[in-house]
Amino acid sequence: MRGFHIIKTRSIDLNNAHGLAMESRLEKSVEPTGYRLELEPYLEDAMYKGHVTINVTWLEDSHTINVHCGHDIEITETEMQAYLSSESEELNTIPIKRVTVDLKKPIALIRLEKTVPKSTRGFIKFSFKGNMQTATTEAFFKTSYSTEQEVERIVAGTQLRPNNARRMFPCFDEPAYKTPFELSVVRPRDMVALSNVPVARTEDINDEPNAVWDHFERTPPMSTFTLGLVIADLKQFGSAIHYEDENGNNIEIRVWGRPEFIEMLEGLNEKVAQVFSEVANFWQVPLPLRRLDIVALPNYQGVKPADNWGLIVFKESDLTSRGYLQMSQELSYQWLGALVTPAWWSDAHLNKALVGYLAAEIAFKINNGSEMEGKWPMTVLYSLYYEFSKRYPHSRITGMKQETACTKIELLFRMFNYTIGGDTFRKGMRKFIESRKFKTFTGDDIWNALNEAALADGKIPKDINIKTVATSWIEKDRLPVITVKRNYETNTAFVTQKVYLRERPHDLPSSNKMLWSAPLVVCRSDRLSFKNFTPSSWIRHADLNLLNMPDEKHFIIVNPEEIAPFPVNYDQDNWNLISEYLQSENRVNIPELTRAKLLHDAWNLAYAGELSFATAFNMTLFMEHERNHLVWDPVFTMIDHIGRHLCPCIVDKFRAYVRSLLTPLYNEMVRDGKDDGDNRRKSLFSLTKTFLCQVGFKPCIIEAQEQFNNWMQAPNPDEGNPISNQYICPVFKWGTQKEWDFGLQRVINFPPSRKQSERTYLLKTLAGCPVDEKKIEKLLNITILEGNGNFTETDLFLIFSMLTGNSQGYTTLFYFLNNNWDVLKEKFRSKTNIWDNMITSATSQFTTKTGMNLVAIMYDNHKGEFGSAEHIIEKSLRNIREEAKWSEENIPVIEEWLNYYLSRTGVKDDQAFVAN
């Protein structure tokens, strides 16, 4: 009895198909010119049958043909026909010797009985069977959900990006093979089938009254991974959007969801219409589609939407979000990714970077980027600054490397948009996409199109090439720091570039050979303007001179608005001029992103040893009157980074400085009312309060203790935490031993029925927050020496990690290790992972000569006893030596500045909390 296409679900275990082997490029003996694909899903059994006819043309004389075919696909029949001469209209069957599937790669090899000559046209026909994916929503998948009436519904769909078409049917699954598709699919009569193009006709099936064939129109030429299909119980939301413009777009846009979810999509049509209009207006090259369907698919689990051409499949939660960023990305992929396609997987990061940049620009244009709190590109740029300034970027993690490479290119597009101007940038992009539509592209195609537009509009010097500029950034996992030293007698500036390194030591191999092509945009206070971003010059070599600079009364700012991803250092006088201007009421003439940059650059350069900390701290003086959240953002990072690096000898002075810095902002926000619906203001208030709590702000600690007391008075405190997490760390840090002991008991007694993430948070704060060594010692004694059974090895790793966050933590751990050496060595003799982690956490964080001496004495006393951790403590000593040099040079400067600041401001500091 053959299975019907109408369905009730049952659970089926499937073997996952093999992933893409990057070396599995097909031999180019033939190329596809069209697909006729028929699919018959049997949703009850999570399997399907199919037939595909592939039009092919021989590129060379050959008796073999390679096609992609996943190992889950069973080819049941193969047939080959061809017109054996260009004049012939008669199809001839080409005998097939055998079809074999590579056991290691998803490739099927067809061997023919005879050689077919070059330029021959023909057809390959496959009949095949396959299993739908049920463990993931990849390839051709099946999932299910329950309605409000607890009726189970089945959903079928595809996610073929980047290389999953081969897991659905035999095909030429490479981006460059762009061909039309004709798809026919069987669906239950009471469900909807959607694909890249509208249904041309629907056909009944004999003996199956509840199922029909949907035959879809012929698609434009496209890559296999943009083929899409959804079969589900869907309802259209509202009326279709009809978008037509003078550029040739004439498209119907429809939004779909399950009937119970439709009301959640209120307002989505307007959002889609607005974003589509912006994206279409940017490209001004029409989409060759009559229809675009956007689907909120129940139980779709993809990390990102399935952006098929003409059919975008979202998680339901994604389509109910208020932001515009993701929608902008997905609609941009309809042009960049579908109409034009990366030539190979290695070019995909360029596609993602450009789409990411355009989406951010559109989101800002529509609502000022409110979902990113207006912080783009700050957040991604500062992350790059930190990552690329490490001795070993990415910690050698490939996935992170790919993400940062993509982010850097996204910022390069932003740089070019600024430096050649938005009009020229758009002209280049439109020329690029017009020239590559229905084709693939590489980075060269983009850079060359931008270069031609920039030269034509006179936006770059003739000796500057945008491809060369871009390459100088893309090929390095580093960023430059530009140093500008002015000569006030000659009104010139000497500009140099070198690798930007924060993490010591700075002896990076070949660093002196690294050079970037970077635009030098200069703003000057004698004619202050932030509207013209044409570079004064482009630095390509190690140095250059800038002429016609202003006199000694006026500052300059290089690289305003973070136009290019590099920090800038200046001579002392120029820093002073900027600092004085920022402390005046005229500071608002400098945009907030540039104010943030100046602050961020200053303290990071000081941290890297390139600038005096006195200058960096002077740059924070204007914050007394600053209220913009963008400018405060780097201040909080500075407090965290610098605070971790200070020795206990001046930490109280630093905390007093932070309280003095933040208290006016906090008091003003409390007075004005903080709950006004503005997320940016809420976020600023929350950060202000958090950092004040960290440095012992009395009102904060008292409030936290009052809230914590509610928990301590609860009749059953282990049933749950009745207070907000924000109150826990301040109490454990500044509160009593009794309060901390209460928290410890909650971890020990933690019921298994509660979420483990709550226990983890509690343990993190117990270890990482206290400033009292006695609390930390007690935790170490209980968890390690006493071996309390309520604590696992994972808990120990967490505790060690948290203790590295402040000097009290790692110093207490060091003495604990030193005082209990023999016991601990024996205890962890066979557990080298814990031993190594403890040695790392106890020895690697010291930053002073005193700390170096402590670790050196331990090393000498126990040389040869460290076992697997011998290399760890040796590395710790090398690093501490560098950090001690830093501290020796900078701590006295910081202390002197703090003394001056605290005496000058007359800080009474009556808001300082005294720990119990």
Write up this protein.
The structure is a single chain. The chain is built from 26 helices and 31 strands. It has 916 residues and is α+β, with helices and mostly antiparallel strands. Helix 19 (756-768) crosses helix 21, helix 20 (773-785) crosses helix 22 and helix 24 runs parallel beside helix 26. The strands form eight sheets. Strands 5-4-8-2-1-11-14-13 form an eight-stranded mixed beta sheet, with no helix packed on it. The radius of gyration is 32 Å and the shape is globular.
Which features would summarize this protein structure in a list?
alpha+beta, about 40% helix, about 900 residues, about 20% strand, 6-stranded mixed beta sheet, 8-stranded mixed beta sheet
Q: Low-confidence spans: pLDDT under 50, at least 5 residues?
A: 1-23
- Strand percentage, roughly? 15-25%
For the secondary structure, the number of strands is 31
Q: How far apart are the first and last residues' alpha carbons, in Å? A: 80 Å
User: What is the residue-averaged pLDDT?
Assistant: 92
Biggest sheet features:
8 strands, mixed
Structural class: alpha+beta
Strand order of the largest sheet: 5-4-8-2-1-11-14-13
Shape: globular
Number of helices: 26
Helix proportion range: 25-40%
Radius of gyration: 32 Å
Structure summary:
This protein is an alpha+beta fold and 916 residues long.
